[in-house]
Amino acid sequence: MVTRCIRLGLVFSVLMTGLALADEGENLSETAFTLEKMVVTAGRVEEEQKTLTNDVTIIDSEDIDQSPARDLGELLAEQGFAVRQYPGALTSVGIRGFRTDTTGNDLTSKVLILLDGRRAGTGNVAKIMTKNVQRVEIIRGPASVQYGSAAVGGVINVITRQGEGPNAGFVEGTLGSWRYEEGSLGIQGEGNGLDFSVAGSRATMEDYQTADGETYKNTGFDEEESISVNVGYRFNPNHRLGMIYTNFTVDETGSPSYLSQNDLDSYLDKSNYTVDAIYDGETAKERFSWKLRYFAGKDKDKYTSPAWSYINDTITERKGAQAQLSADLDFVTITGGVDWVNYDIESTATPELSTYDNPAGFLLAKGLLLDERLIISAGGRYDSYEVQIKRGQGGKEEDSHFSPNLGLAYLITESLKVRANYGQAFVMPGANQLAADYIDVFTGAQIQGNPNLSPEESSTWEGGIDFYNSGVSVSATYFYTDYKDKIEYVSLPGGISSWDNLGEATIAGIEGELNIDVGAIYNWEFQLRPYIRFTYLTQYEDDTTGEDLKYTPDWNASYGIDFTNWKGVSVNFNIAYTGQQSVEDWENQVWPNDPEIITLGSATVGSLTISKTLLTSDRWGSLTLKGNISNLFNQDYAYISGYPMPGRSFYLGLRYDI
Q1: Sheet containing 154-160: order of strands
Q2: Domain spanning 2-280+287-299+310-657: CATH 2.40.170.20
């Protein structure tokens, strides 16, 4: 406890130092500073960041381009989010003690991943590539009122780059440790009403070594490919028809099990693709705007174990639609609409075929009062869902849920905002949990759904402060979440296995961010920006047992320094810290006993990225050399007990832009 208090004190000292520097900068300059302006989609429409009543983190294109991360999971780990990463393109991410579900469908997850404002159809963030991404917006805290089931801990919205300006393109190649090879290319631009942005990449890698120098066999992959296409046509300045296509595939990526029990031949094939058709429009004076979208796609996970002659194949086919209308009525903006998603999940395991149908309607409002200094937001969403298990292995059940939200913010000055927010969120029960009726082929037990299950629910209160000044941004938020009706596995008389609403939990903590651009404060011609981002859980308790929640680190943070624009040189030094956590020791489990609870140690993982523009020409473009050292200090660490991550790794790339 003493250590936690010391760490917390240090963080607040850093935050207050940032405020002091900002005040000093304000005294030195006569410039009128305002809250940073950046449009976000927390309310499903574009709005300025200063009008938000909840905590939103934005990873912009500059951060993404400078990062060595190959996928969304690596990017979020670098940004200080809690991740659980296995070899084999499998990563979940956590926000405020809740996390994505990598093996189920995203309707039953607890953190929601979006691609351009609609469900990505997976909680495995290793399937979401960062090529052709304009920015990533993270709503911290409940967002079921905007997006429905699973948005308990938060929402991560990955926004695809939209073409603009003159035609441009790039070609890039990277070589690295463990015989890593990657090639990527892209092109973007706009003209005559047409805009386009296309990027793709292909990579291969062999088995890596741990920090101890031991080869972790079967951790490489034969081929990993991704492509992203965003094309649109404006037949009128206020009307755009668009199409977005995303596809990720990885062939024969290793599934090595624990290092101590290294499986040498099992492998995984994974893919996720979606096609969106979108119509955006608005009236001439922008008083009314609307969006129509239809999307369809497929998510696949196939596990093959040659040694056991076993194959587990799961295919999720999804389709959905969105329709929304927004009215800007001077001091109030009202947005309403309907969402619909439909999932068909087919598996070689039991149940073999289950379906989900989820229509919903929502209404959101935001008012700007007292000369636009007082911001009030409110909303409600009604979700109806129907699940069915087919092929004689269950039946059909249906239910519904209403999610409210209320937020307040006040601009004390043009640079300082205080805010408070209350929101409820939910996770709908799975088809198996509601409607199953079959015999498990592995255990011989009868599996029976519980039609009386309620959705898992959360209620979250939060309050925070945001400060933006010339070169300085500070944000801090306290949150308190009461989680109830957690669905847990139960044994019934007669050897029947089922589920019931039994669990409750309390999660509270502080999250914050500080950025100080020293170059902007003193009008230097380059950027020198130290930063820190953190989440500290003051409470994460299972209310039934009174014990800390498992797989939940108390601290997550990233801190470092950016240095850019000095004779074409950019440098980023970053450290990502994950605190210790209690986990179940499945590696050394003695059947039929329950696994022992052990402590997974903390990890401090450094990285250094340096890029240098070698040549630049208005006619011929530019040539840039980029190097990266991951796990700079050769830390022996693991996000999953028994699955050590790679040791110190080196990468060198060359990029040509025209």
Answers
A1: 55-59, 133-140, 154-160, 111-115, 118-119
A2: yes
